[in-house]
């Protein structure tokens, strides 16, 4: 009984839940390359407000910072925390790749072997994939990040055209 | 324990699903009946028998089966009418669920007619409504330019009746509220609010989705000035099937309201220029109705009437009192709603400090205990308590004290698991 729970609530997840990384909104939301989004899980009411700041240097667009305020369960909070660790500082293209890998893991119903090289602490969520009702929790922060990043890329690209 | 249904073990045997176990072989502890109730064998059998032996369309099939199906369907209406003490059986309209019934009223009140809600008019609701009794009224008032105003409630989960004079005025066209709250469990003063609303000529619409399963309802016995004009509930919470809801409305009001949906069955004659409409109840039942569902609902309310709604209510109160006592032993647990079991319904929402409702429900689920976690379609009410969501246990006729013990024990375990306290 407890083994089933332990598969879901890995120590890493509970640690991130108790001490979330990069939490608290930072930076100027109206700065160039910054986009803020608000996502909710309509079935349970979990919410996240997430701010992404992208910056281009040497022709590479990078995730300069991700900050957020959120309320929700241990899975959604820990997942958002792990996500910020994984994407901050990475080139956008690479970060999007990590997102894809995480998404595949979550949608695999427990049959996908997680890649620690890519996902680091994110492998702790492998057990969540076996609990269909919780997959949405694990994806809330990621979906918000992807949305904000895509929006920022469009505006940044438009900005680039003007130069 | 006093108040429990005398034949509780026999009642439990009536519900086949209670005999099943979880994947780990644990017994099922179903404490989510405010969400939907389980179904007794008689309801399942009545529906199967209908489909196996009497199936045909109603009202329009001129043959043996058609006559039998029509009789069974209309028999369901008779049983529902008896269950709520409807003054007339033709005042009982079948809809898809409670939500559709509420939309039917809110939508038709926005159309041409004696009761049309327009600019400057006021519709009054409460902050403890289910979303199904908020959104239709928002849609009506936004479309018509009327104003939606709200009763608030206090820390103890009781409506603030000191607002009555300010909210229920000559401008007020509709007053709508839930009889029993699905989140707080509060039982609202139907007679008093209805009397006040009628004094200013307002129409009273009561959401009885949580009341019909638990309280004896006898509309005909209510003094006219205290009887709501419309009462709705949903079949699946009164041990009936999904796919059917009930709208009872005062005949004179239903006759004045324009039709809601157009189609077969709801007409008298149709020409290419115009149609004339059928009388009650068919005027509001366009298309093929939920036939087998009405048969099942009829069997369901007969089953509850057989237990006796006074006895059902006493059982609910006994279990609720026992649950409130047990929940009180869990450190860091806060009940959102009235604490006196005699003043409330059987849905108990609570917060457990340090553990999110989703995580509470997950731990309970692994132990075979089904509760609801989330906003229970009552976000405004949660916002009042400064919380996003809560965990809710809700009992019914088949709930035992032993199941409450299992819940309380599991909540202590949940705290240990998440190392709080
Ligand atoms: C108080 C209340 N009103 C309305 C509803 C809506 O019922 P349904 O979803 O069957 O339309 C519910 C049930 O969820 C309820 O508890």
Automatic annotation (TrEMBL), chain A:
GO BP terms in the entry: iron-sulfur cluster assembly
One MF annotation (Gene Ontology) recorded for this entry: iron ion binding
Domain NIF system FeS cluster assembly NifU N-terminal residues, every copy: 9-137
Pfam families per UniProt: NifU_N
Name by which UniProt lists this protein: Unannotated protein
């Amino acid at each position: 009984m407890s083994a089933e729970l332990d598969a879901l609530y890995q120590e890493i997840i509970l640690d991130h839940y108790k001490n979330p990384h990069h939490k608290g909104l930072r930076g100027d939301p109206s700065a160039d390359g910054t986009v803020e989004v608000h996502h909710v899980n309509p079935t349970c009411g979990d919410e996240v407000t997430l701010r992404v700041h992208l910056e281009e240097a040497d022709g590479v667009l990078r995730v300069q910072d991700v900050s957020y305020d959120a309320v929700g369960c241990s899975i959604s909070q820990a997942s958002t925390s792990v996500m910020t660790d994984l994407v901050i500082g990475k080139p956008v293209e690479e970060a999007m790749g990590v997102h894809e890998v995480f998404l595949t893991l979550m949608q695999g119903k427990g049959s996908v072997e997680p890649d620690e090289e890519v996902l680091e602490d994110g492998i702790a969520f492998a057990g969540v994939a076996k609990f269909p009702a919780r997959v949405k929790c694990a994806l809330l922060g990621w979906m918000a990040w992807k949305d904000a990043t895509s929006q920022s890329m469009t505006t940044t690209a438009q900005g680039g055209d003007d130069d | 324990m006093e108040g429990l249904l005398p034949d509780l073990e026999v009642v439990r045997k009536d519900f086949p699903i209670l005999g099943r176990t979880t994947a780990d072989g644990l017994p099922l502890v179903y404490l989510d009946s405010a969400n939907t109730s389980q179904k007794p064998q008689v309801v399942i059998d009545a529906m199967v028998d209908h489909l196996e032996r009497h199936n045909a369309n109603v009202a329009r099939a001129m043959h043996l089966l058609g006559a039998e199906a029509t009789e069974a369907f209309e028999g369901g209406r008779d049983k529902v009418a008896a269950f709520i003490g409807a003054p007339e059986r033709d005042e009982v309209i079948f809809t898809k669920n409670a939500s559709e019934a509420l939309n039917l009223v809110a939508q038709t009140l926005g159309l041409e007619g004696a009761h049309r809600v327009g600019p400057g008019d006021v519709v009054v609701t409460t902050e403890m409504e289910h979303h199904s009794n908020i959104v239709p009224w928002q849609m009506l008032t936004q479309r018509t330019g009327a104003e939606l105003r709200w009763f608030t409630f206090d820390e103890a989960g009781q409506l603030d009746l000191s607002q009555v004079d300010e909210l229920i005025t000559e401008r007020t066209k509709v007053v709508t509220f839930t009889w029993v709250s699905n989140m707080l469990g509060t039982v609202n003063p139907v007679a008093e609010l209805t009397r006040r609303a009628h004094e200013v000529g307002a129409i009273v619409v009561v959401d009885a989705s949580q009341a019909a399963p638990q309280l004896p309802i006898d509309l005909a016995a209510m003094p006219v000035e205290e009887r709501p004009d419309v009462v709705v509930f949903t079949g699946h919470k009164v041990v009936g099937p999904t796919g059917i809801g009930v709208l009872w409305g005062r005949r004179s009001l239903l006759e004045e309201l324009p039709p809601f949906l157009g189609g077969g069955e709801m007409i008298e004659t149709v020409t290419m220029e115009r149609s004339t409409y059928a009388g009650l109840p068919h005027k509001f039942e366009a298309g093929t109705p939920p036939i087998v569902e009405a048969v099942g609902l009829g069997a369901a309310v007969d089953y509850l009437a057989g237990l006796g709604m006074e006895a059902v209510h006493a059982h609910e109160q006994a279990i609720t009192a026992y649950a409130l006592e047990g929940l009180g032993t869990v450190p860091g647990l806060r009940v959102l709603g009235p604490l006196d079991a005699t003043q409330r319904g059987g849905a108990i929402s609570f917060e457990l400090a340090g553990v999110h409702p989703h995580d509470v429900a997950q731990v309970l689920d692994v132990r075979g205990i089904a509760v609801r976690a989330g906003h229970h379609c009552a976000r405004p009410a949660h916002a009042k308590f400064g919380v996003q969501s809560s965990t809710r246990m809700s009992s019914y006729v088949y709930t035992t004290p032993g199941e409450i013990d299992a819940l309380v024990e599991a909540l202590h375990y949940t705290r240990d698991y998440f190392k709080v306290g």
